[in-house]
Amino acid sequence: MSLRVAEKLSGRFRYLADDAPKGALVGLVLRSAHPHARISRLDTRAAEAVPGVHAVVTTADVPAGFRFGLRLKDQPVLADGVVRHLGEAVAAVAAETMEIAAAALAAIDVDYEILPPVTDPHVALGKEAVALHDGGNLCHAFDYLKGDVAVALEASAHTVDLSLDTPRQMHVALELEGGVAIPGEGDLVLRAPAHDPHHVRHVLSELTGLEEENIHVVGSPIGGSYGGKEDLHVQPVLALLGLKARRPVRLVLSRPEAVAAGIKRHPFSIRLRAGCNADGRLTALDFDAVADTGAYASHGPEVLETAMECAPGAYDWPSVRLAGRLAYTNNGISGAFRGFGAVQTQSALELAIDALADKAGVDRIAFRRLNLAAAEGPGPLGQTMVPMLELEPLGEALAALPAVPVGRPDERFVAGTGVALIRKGEGFGGGGPNGALGRLALGFDGRIRLETSLTEMGQGLEAAALAALRQAFGVDGRDVGLRIGETAVGNSGPTSASRGTQIAVRLVRKGAETMRQALGAAAARKLGGAAEDYISGPGGMFRADDRRNRPDIGFAALAEGEDIAVDVEIEPIETHLDGLACHTLFTACAARAFILVDRWTGRITCTGIDVLPACGMPLVPAAFDGQMAGGAAQALGFCLTEDLLATDGSFAARNLDGYFVPTIADMPPVRIHPLVELDARDPVGLRGAGEIGLNAVAPAIACAVRDVLGIPPLRLPVDPDWVLDVLEARR
Amino acid sequence: MRISFTLNGRPAALEAEPFERLAPLLSSNFDLKSVRTACGIGRCGACMVLVDGKAVNACLLIAGKVEGAEIFTAEGLEAVAAPLIAALEAHGAIQCGYCAPGLLVSLAASLLAGDRVRAEDVEATLTGNLCRCTGYAGIRAAIADVFG
Ligand code: FES
Ligand code: FES
């Protein structure tokens, strides 16, 4: 649930690229039609000469060797001699009209020397492969070893071997990547959807040479992201165009540009071997994953780390070997996507858990409960962690879910059920930007407001923060306000990794006591008495001992001539473990999915989903439920319909035809059963809801497919032809 | 050519080639931001407008076809669609909101079609309105309230 629903429905609500100053130029980007090529000539003189063109930019306008990225800075703003993926930006223009901009793009002269694309991540990591970057094609590696896996597997009563390939899922936010650059005298305003306005500003400062304080980035609101707008998208090119043209520029991608050049979910290729004893106790897990990050790292290294940390699941393994490899290829760019690498490995692991349970002859939920990791830790990589007592209650709740009639099993349709129980790290692994700055202030409008650079993308951060403010000060909706999503306020870190809403609420709670004192002190200054004599309430401050219906002083009057504000800082909880990135704080979730498989067509319909998130007490229940249902829909797409297939570095779809985002007709009822009790010692007291539902529902659907077919799917989304083959072979 | 029609209840006209697509013309000539081209090929529903009572993808509709037509965009439907808006709000049916105007137009078409429309039929009319955020759960609940 979000605020301003009526405005959004009626089209009065404005997104960041909707409006541009009068006289703003139109930006357009020239993109490579080749996935891998050397640029042997790039001549923009004819384009510059087109009347109405105010700027043409190429890599010549970028500081030599400039690259951006999160941890690994490897991405050029505009192709620097080589293009490494289809749709890579080569040049950009700013012109008075769209027609002129298009004519200018057509007038840019580029010669490409086409190079063979590297498209198979396994091949990319081989010795013979052409290196796409100076350091070779291994973008990142992750290894972890505990015990002797080979010996333990040998000694196991039951073992399973499993492989799973997962899709290049596309985010398909309806709002396309776009924004507006407004250059001034020695400064720049940049409005474009972003998860971390301060990070965007930092990169733009390095790119343009402007001091950070002379750049103002606005990143909120966002018309859908799911991680797709987490990395910089149009901001660097927009900044270059605006500064060169010395005019405001508006640039919005078309859907075909976004499909070709936008961030996608990392396809994973997983092979695992797992074992258990005769009594159903897990013995060993041997887990290999190769992920395709495409041309640039983006969030790939963090995605791989989260994937591998989540590979052992919520279970206790006496011995574990994890090996993850992230390969550069010429298959677009993969980066952050809700579920963040974990959904891939969790799907494979939960399939293996079901296979072992069946071999051991133990009920699948009972098998999970038997093998749950200890509540007190250590974590999946042996790290210390915040205790999570919610795993066992989740297992119990999963077992206690009422049976649901599975629809219409008959000669044509066959029904199946799958369950999953998972946990995922929240916030960033060791050393990530987990801390946050924020501020509580009383404005002259009489509103107590939270100031934070966290952004709203529909997840309900605004609604939750306002609810937290109302609670903390005992006031009404008209007494609270927000200033969010821009660099004019303190750096609260990225709105990602399910942390945004949780951090916003914690900022309010952490600063509340000091702010209440500051409000009391101001009331005492104005009305006499001591700070303790006053408490906040609807409309203003009340004398604590003599509570009337009306405040003794209204908030607006209180604010007059005063500067009532409190800076708040949340310190990160750090984990350091021999250089391995890992989490301290985990969120758990279980799910159950029902499917029907059509014997005639091989098509799979999902007929019901239960989600059991353990996130503490939701502040805004409708917003919380919305996160679960939305995540379930993306999980369904991941398992059953969505994949942007690539051949020789080119995608099979150019737009939304040929790529199937679930519609209302594809979605079954989603029942949400939140577990609201967290451990009393829990230092955080609530968990983010953004990802965890997706992480649990996808493996549950995958397990339901195995339930029907008897063998685990080899790839997601499940191919109806494969289903038909399996059904045929079984007859 | 000059094309005349009524737009949100008022006479309107624009200069366009007859084969030009309506969606960008409406959003740029009349500053109607609700008409959003998010795919341009009729797959997402973000560009929906009501043409003579029917919900239509304005990204596919050519300008020459709307001469004399009665067109409503989401901006012009706020009053008639008030019960829908209230129900969608009550159920937390909207997240980022980018799909919302297109959704409202599709739903308004059902609302204006009269009282015979059943909730299942309304849902069936929404398969052309993609919403990537919500999983449609709140939208369904709102439909059940208004049409159930
Ligand atoms: S823009 Fe018209 S249907 Fe997508
Ligand atoms: S609310 Fe974001 S697309 Fe529907």
Automatic annotation (TrEMBL), chain A:
One of its GO terms (molecular function) is iron ion binding. This is Xanthine dehydrogenase molybdenum binding subunit apoprotein. Residues 10-116 form the Aldehyde oxidase/xanthine dehydrogenase a/b hammerhead domain. It holds the Pfam family MoCoBD_1. InterPro entries: Ald_Oxase/Xan_DH_a/b, Ald_Oxase/Xan_DH_a/b_sf, Ald_Oxase/xanthine_DH-like, AldOxase/xan_DH_MoCoBD1, AldOxase/xan_DH_MoCoBD2, AldOxase/xan_DH_Mopterin-bd_sf. It comes from Breoghania corrubedonensis.
From TrEMBL, chain B:
Residues 1-77 form the 2Fe-2S ferredoxin-type domain. GO terms for molecular function: 2 iron, 2 sulfur cluster binding; metal ion binding; oxidoreductase activity. PROSITE patterns: 2FE2S_FER_1 (PS00197), 2FE2S_FER_2 (PS51085). The keyword Metal-binding applies. The keyword Iron-sulfur applies. Keywords: 2Fe-2S, Iron, Iron-sulfur, Metal-binding, Oxidoreductase. PANTHER family: OXIDOREDUCTASE WITH IRON-SULFUR SUBUNIT, XANTHINE DEHYDROGENASE IRON-SULFUR-BINDING SUBUNIT XDHC-RELATED. This is Carbon-monoxide dehydrogenase small subunit.
